[in-house]
UniProtKB/TrEMBL annotation, chain A:
Residues 252-297 form the Metaxin glutathione S-transferase domain. Residues 70-180 form the Thioredoxin-like fold domain. GO terms for cellular component: SAM complex. It comes from Chaetomium strumarium. Coiled coil: none annotated. GO terms for biological process: mitochondrion organization. This is Thioredoxin-like fold domain-containing protein. Residues 100-115, 132-150 have a biased composition (Low complexity). The lineage of its organism: Eukaryota, Fungi, Dikarya, Ascomycota, Pezizomycotina.
Automatic annotation (TrEMBL), chain B:
One of its GO terms (biological process) is mitochondrion organization. The lineage of its organism: Eukaryota, Fungi, Dikarya, Ascomycota, Pezizomycotina. The keyword Protein transport applies. GO terms for cellular component: SAM complex. It holds the Pfam family Tom37. It is found in: Mitochondrion outer membrane. This is Tom37 C-terminal domain-containing protein. It comes from Chaetomium strumarium. Keywords: Membrane, Mitochondrion, Mitochondrion outer membrane, Protein transport, Transmembrane, Transmembrane helix, Transport. PANTHER family: FAILED AXON CONNECTIONS-RELATED, METAXIN RELATED. Residues 21-147 form the Mitochondrial outer membrane transport complex Sam37/metaxin N-terminal domain. The chain crosses the membrane at residues 347-367, 387-404.
Length: 346, 405
């Protein structure tokens, strides 16, 4: 019989203990058919209005306040700029079919109580909103998708958008996750909602920090060979990150965006009539930076410390970006005043 | 003392094999007189910043690494003959910043697809180039490390199929697992049927199979760069960086030259830019102020660097080791800038890791010594050395000797 030649015990093959094996011989494992969803499940998981699942807190979700996650806030802003009615609910990445927030659950369809309509991932949100607004209300408002679909200078906007997705994102990641002085904020936003157990929170904090360091290292040019080698999985410590470089790049990026915005007469990027995707994705960062990081962190390393990201936004281009943030806030959240100003400055 | 720019050495007919190093050389060359700086060919393990390009400025005794940081450093602490000829307007400066970020974010992964991810190109062009510029034992540790970083940088593009080494490894592992778990093993001689994919698919190289997607990825990046009508409106730093990436995309002679073909066919203006810039900055016959780093090339130093690199590859320990080493080097760099940094518990961590490893090893050893679960324990005892132990014969003797019974 041609069986495996390696009858010798190997390290990673642990034999099943004999009593256990006898037990399973008598009671073989059997997988039952999955049950159907209960009838009430759709009532519980969906509502009459579309639901956008984002990182948020319960109170914020009730009043529809801006999310504290830049990725979610971008899409939330864009959806608010369309005339789609939706509510938001706090959620986590684990709940999303794509593995990342945000996603939108369409309103309940009364015709079929059990078969629910599939959730819509982030990149299809705008087309969904456009489709809804044309089929149902048919209002005269030209939806923002028309402006976002054809920006006047698409190629240049791509170059500028990497200022947001590279420089600003890295600075945000570093300031929130790796800056030790903001541990309390990080815990309040991302860790405390997940678990009340101390041990789980500690592990989660470590994982988040590691993932953030990994993101910064692999996306920017500050990858250091010495650290990235260790272990095939890639060990990444925050020590390998050139902090000053990250913040200097963020400052350059903000200045560049401010001078680009100053060229536009309409107050929106690339001379658009209405705020578009680019405005929303910049707003997602500037708003959060100004709201959560208004002043410098306490553990500065000599030389009087560096500017906090919120202060950078306020100063870039003589407040050009701060005014842009106000405009977007007015357009998407009319009547909303920065609730957190002064509250979170502890 | 003059400025010292530590860079990867020359390859592919260019002054450096790395895009940012190439850009840094070009920038320094264009803005500063050659008597005021030296180029030193080295590798990241030799400089305290652990990252190239690195600029050592003896006047401020600081180390700066990364191209944009070096350019900023030169602008804020200019050497006597420094003059940046470009005077961009605020909007042009903004454009330059945007294109710099774009190149870092998108051109670098594209370049690493061509030179590092693709196994054929890496084996035939990149790795020999690294071997040529590194002193002897270092080619064993450093190029794989660089490749690992570059592959990780291009991971999000989802083109790992170009890395046939990794795929062959995975297939072999899967086969071994199947052989170990299966009841019946088919000898490899009989496995002709599913040997290797035959037919058209088997004849094509991974690059040819993925050609359409590769061209799409290249177009995503190069379309944006091709929109730039006049490169001279951008700042000198942005132009240098663009040259660094585009030249390495276009010039190296690699066995699977998809990136070069795409550039030559569809973006002649980018090729013109690269050729023009090269003619202007690195004309034939002009020598760059290379200097020999005698201290760094001493045999003992090289062997130490090699040992450090090898230690990083040790599973588990290597991770902690490299973290601790990076933290140490970082403190060194920051100390040179006159900054205080909180001491880290690096050594303690290393000790902990060692202790943990020892414990795990001891535990495993102990576990292996245990008898298998569920089996009756059989204990063999040495028979007593009496005559009755010999059975019937013993009984006879015992009776005969003592006259009993």
């Amino acid at each position: 019989m041609a069986s495996t030649p390696s009858s010798a015990p190997s390290w990673h093959k642990i034999q099943i203990p004999r009593p256990l094996q006898r037990l399973f011989d008598r009671f073989p494992l059997r997988t039952y058919e999955p049950n159907d969803l209960p009838q009430r499940s759709q009532q519980l998981t969906s509502s009459d209005v579309a639901t956008l699942y984002v990182f948020s807190t319960d109170e914020d979700a009730r009043i529809g306040a801006p999310s504290f996650n830049p990725g979610c806030l971008k899409w939330q802003t864009l959806l608010r700029l369309t005339n789609l009615q939706f509510r938001i609910l706090p959620s986590t990445n684990h709940a999303s079919p794509t593995g990342s927030l945000p996603f939108l659950l369409p309103p309940r369809t009364s015709s079929s109580p059990t078969s629910s309509s599939p959730p819509i991932p982030a990149d299809k949100l705008l087309s969904y909103a456009a489709q809804k607004s044309t089929t149902t209300t048919n209002s005269p408002s030209p939806t923002t998708t028309t402006t976002t679909a054809k920006p006047p200078s698409p190629k240049k906007s791509e170059a500028y958008s990497s200022l947001i997705t590279l420089s600003l994102r890295n600075a945000w990641l570093h300031a929130l996750y790796l800056d030790r002085s903001r541990t309390a904020l990080l815990r309040a936003l991302y860790i405390a909602p997940c678990s009340s157990s101390r041990a789980v929170q500690t592990a989660l904090l470590y994982q988040l920090r590691r993932a953030a360091a990994e993101q910064i290292l692999s996306s920017s040019g500050t990858t250091k060979v010495g650290t990235a080698v260790g272990g095939a999985g890639g060990s990444s410590s925050a020590d390998a990150i050139d902090e000053e470089g990250v913040y200097a790049e963020a400052w350059d990026a903000l200045c560049a965006l401010a001078s680009l915005l100053a060229e536009s007469e309409t107050g929106w990027f690339f001379g658009a009539e209405k705020p578009g995707t680019f405005d929303a994705s910049l707003f997602a960062y500037t708003h959060l930076m100004m709201e959560y990081m208004p002043e410098g962190s306490s553990t500065e390393e000599g030389e009087g410390g560096r500017m906090a990201l919120g202060a950078m936004v306020r100063k870039a281009g003589n407040g050009e970006l701060a005014r842009h943030r106000e405009r977007v806030l007015q357009a998407a959240w009319p009547g909303w005043e920065g609730r957190r100003e002064g509250v979170e400055s502890s | 003392m003059v400025l010292q720019l530590h860079v990867w050495g020359p390859a592919f007919g260019l002054p450096s094999i790395d895009a940012e190093c190439l850009a840094a050389i070009a920038y320094l060359h264009e803005s500063t007189s050659p008597t005021e700086y030296q180029l030193i060919q080295t590798s990241p393990s030799a400089v305290p910043t652990q990252h190239l390009p690195a600029l050592h400025d003896p006047s401020t005794s600081t180390w700066t690494s990364g191209f944009s940081r070096i350019a900023t450093h030169l602008q804020t602490h200019p050497p006597p003959s420094f003059s940046d000829p470009s005077r961009p307007s605020p909007l042009e400066q903004a454009d330059s910043t945007a294109y710099t970020a774009f190149l870092t974010q998108h051109a670098a992964p594209l370049l690493s697809l061509s030179l590092y991810v693709s196994s054929a190109n890496y084996a035939a062009a990149t790795r020999p180039a690294y071997s040529a510029i590194l002193p002897f034992p270092l080619p064993w540790t450093e190029p794989p490390a660089v490749r690992a970083v570059m592959v990780r940088r291009a991971e999000h593009l989802g083109m790992s199929s170009l890395d046939t080494d990794a795929r062959a490894e995975k297939e072999r592992e899967a086969e071994e697992r199947a052989a170990a778990e299966g009841w019946v093993t088919v000898p490899s001689a009989l496995k002709l049927g599913r040997q290797k994919e035959k037919g058209v698919g088997g004849m094509l190289s991974p690059e040819q199979k993925a050609r359409i997607r590769l061209e799409g990825l290249a177009a995503d990046v190069l379309d944006v760069l091709g929109e730039v009508e006049d490169w001279s409106t951008l700042s000198l730093a942005a132009r240098c960086l663009a040259f660094g990436y585009l030249a390495l995309m276009m010039l190296p002679d690699v066995p699977r030259p998809w990136l070069r073909e795409v550039m030559r066919r569809r973006y002649p203006e980018l090729c013109d830019f690269v050729n023009g810039f090269r003619r202007e900055v690195f004309p034939k016959g002009r020598t760059l102020p290379w200097a020999e780093d005698k201290a760094g090339m001493a045999a003992a130093v090289v062997v130490t660097r090699f040992a450090r690199g090898a230690l990083c590859e040790v599973p588990w320990i290597g991770e902690y080791w490299s973290q601790w080493w990076t933290a140490k080097k970082r403190r060194q760099v920051l100390a040179a800038r006159g900054m205080k940094n909180g001491s880290s518990s690096g050594m303690l961590l290393l000790l902990e890791a060692g202790l943990g490893m020892a414990l795990v090893g001891a535990g495993a050893f102990f576990y292996r010594g245990l008898p298998p679960f569920g089996e009756a324990v059989q204990v063999w005892r040495r028979p007593l050395g009496t005559l009755s132990g010999l059975g019937a014969a013993g009984a006879i003797f015992s009776g005969a000797l003592y006259g009993l019974d």
